[in-house]
Amino acid sequence: MVPLVSYQLEDSIATITMDDGKVNALSPQMLAELAAAFDRAAADRAVVVLTGRPGVFCAGFDLNVLRSGGSTMVRDGFELAARILSFPAPVLIACTGHAVAMGVFLLLSGDYRVGAAGPYKITANEVALGLTVPRAALEICRQRLTPAHLNRALLLAEVFSPDNAVAAGFLDLVAAADELADVARSTAARLATLDMDAHAATKLRARDHTLKALRAAIDTGDADIEAAG
Length: 229
Hints:
This protein is α/β, with parallel strands linked by helices. 45% of the residues lie in helices and 19% in strands.
């Protein structure tokens, strides 16, 4: 089985890269490898840079698995988001391109998000596909997006570009595509100078409501993606 996720540790910074050669769909294999990579980062006490392949960060869940009844896969996706939201070290996401559906929810779970400039789509497109947005996804979006953009993103499935994603709350910074890796690296190096115990404690305190609501949604099945109507 060809690995879909790579892990590189350098100077207390762990770079976790998704690359399935296509659109970085979150398949059971991809999710299992991401979980293992975050296990390694936790053991290494490393700041994390989570990134994708050129032009694509993540296109969301594997639709073939989802159509055949992928409830376990969906739960694992939101468990990963919860882990990123509560990870004891800073998690920087270097968004290399398109971020769609669950890819957006992972993006919104990072502590700092740098996006590549370019003709890329950032969209939670569930409603456009006839799917009801899970409560777990709503809780993730609510803690980062402005109220107006939350409605536009989830209720109307609006497509955002990197240029307008910062004002909405999807990204913190946009960098030229050929500079993204360097910007992510330099920012991660700055984050690595933080007191990690203070960072972890403050993160849990600041996100207490979100994490409790997200956990409740996962445990009660409100993380499942359902067809509308």
